[in-house]
Design goal:
Shape: globular
Helix content: 40-55%
Number of helices: 17
Number of strands: 11
Structural class: alpha/beta
Radius of gyration: 21 Å
Length: 407
């Protein structure tokens, strides 16, 4: 694993204690569900009271401006990595704004380096080792939030500027408007840490078109800048230094009609130089659709090795470094998720998170890449042949009824 890729995985593990795209447009939305609300006091001048209300939650800042809601992730030193307290603060505010019929919601992040570089999975794996409930609650609450974003009845606009992985993917891709910049770096490197593409990955990845989503899921390939738009992850682009102006133009809208929001976003999208750059995977899309159209991970790797190309060989080598169990789980998950709705996908993913936390590879991947940092995980089993169909099926089996994810 090269130095650049290692640094990306470390960013993903940081903690502190899919309009006009090449492959797809907006991802489908699903039905809504209900939960609790919160109220909060605000501090502002009398002049500001008619325009803006701000609630500081420390790691997350909530603002109500001219009938719109703005969420700002506020852990820049941790690359805005998502922890349980952040999830628990965002969910009820979103529910409250939905009930209040806000014109729309914008979510953004402080710091400029990352929108959200992942979740607090070190704490999650520590919890699994200790037998505490954090690993159960973290994924449950995170998936509630992912589902709410995907079913929100008011428009949801994600400004995904900077590194976006894991938890950050879940905060952005399920909304109808996803604005990337030239600084956006999107990746799902879960197979490298013994996990799988979660946060609804089984729903949106198969819908990117062809076998692109499967390729991204298995390899952890990084989409940068305009790649995120051309792949269908982002719906629009905006130059990073113009994001404040974009936000202001959105806030100034008197309408929340889709065509009015779209008109503002298109204005900045059309000015972004990255939309004119070629898609980095264009030279390989024929091969991706051909070689990854297979019934097993073994067949995919065999196809790549037989290709005779340097790209095929390197891709096969990369897959050989990933958790064999995670690769096989991920392949089956995306096959299943292609026919399900978001809620059904999240319910299956929740089962998988619990099994991964209670098994070996996820804990070992975090150890090797974050704790000891030896970059040398010892997978069990360490070969694809060692991961039987029965093993994979066990991961997908239902949890006890009181532990199932109820959406």
């Amino acid at each position: 694993m090269n130095k650049i890729r290692r640094s990306v995985y470390r960013l993903y593990l940081t903690t502190t204690t899919s309009t006009g795209s090449l492959f797809a447009g907006h991802l489908p939305s699903c039905s809504s569900f209900r939960s609790r609300q919160i109220s909060s006091s605000c501090k502002m001048s009398s002049r500001e009271q008619t325009q803006k209300a701000t609630r500081s939650e420390g790691e997350v800042i909530f603002e109500e401006i001219k009938g719109k809601g703005v969420i700002t992730l506020n852990r820049p030193k941790a690359l805005n990595a998502l922890n349980l307290s952040m999830i628990e603060s965002i969910f009820p505010v979103l529910k409250e704004w939905e009930s209040a019929n806000k014109q729309f919601v914008i979510i953004k992040a402080e710091g400029g380096k990352a929108f959200c570089a992942g979740g607090d999975i070190k704490s999650v794996t520590d919890s699994a080792k200790e037998g505490s409930n954090l690993y159960k609650e973290f994924f449950k609450r995170e998936y509630f939030l992912n589902n709410l974003i995907g079913t929100l009845t008011v428009p949801y606009i994600a400004l995904i500027d900077g590194i976006t992985m894991g938890g950050g993917v879940g905060l952005s891709v399920h909304g109808p408007y996803r604005v990337a910049t030239e600084r956006t770096m999107f990746a799902m490197p879960e197979t490298a840490i013994g996990l799988f593409p979660d946060v609804g990955g089984s729903y949106f990845l198969p819908r990117l078109g062809g076998k692109l989503g499967l390729y991204l899921a298995l390899t952890g390939y990084r989409l940068k800048g305009g790649d995120t738009f051309k792949a269908g992850v982002a719906t629009h682009m905006c130059q990073s230094n113009m994001l404040p102006m974009l936000e202001q133009d959105l806030i100034s809208l008197d309408s929340h009609k889709p065509q009015d929001i779209e008109q503002v976003l298109k204005k900045y999208h059309d000015q972004c130089p990255d939309i004119k750059k070629p898609f980095s995977l264009d030279p390989h899309m024929v091969d991706i659709n051909k070689f990854f159209n297979a019934g097993s991970v073994e067949e995919i790797i065999s196809n790549l090795n037989k290709s005779g190309s340097e790209w095929g060989k390197k891709t096969a080598e990369n897959l050989g470094k990933m958790s064999p169990t995670s690769l096989k789980i991920s392949l089956k998950l995306l096959e299943v998720g292609a026919t399900l709705d978001l809620q059904e996908c999240l319910q299956i993913e929740y089962r998988l998170t619990q099994r991964c936390c209670e098994d070996h590879d996820f804990i070992e991947g975090v150890r090797a890449l974050l704790v000891d940092k030896d970059q040398n995980p010892k997978w069990k089993p360490n070969t694809l042949e060692g991961v039987t169909n029965a093993t994979v099926d066990k991961y997908f089996s239902e949890l006890p009824s009181d532990r199932e994810l109820a959406l």
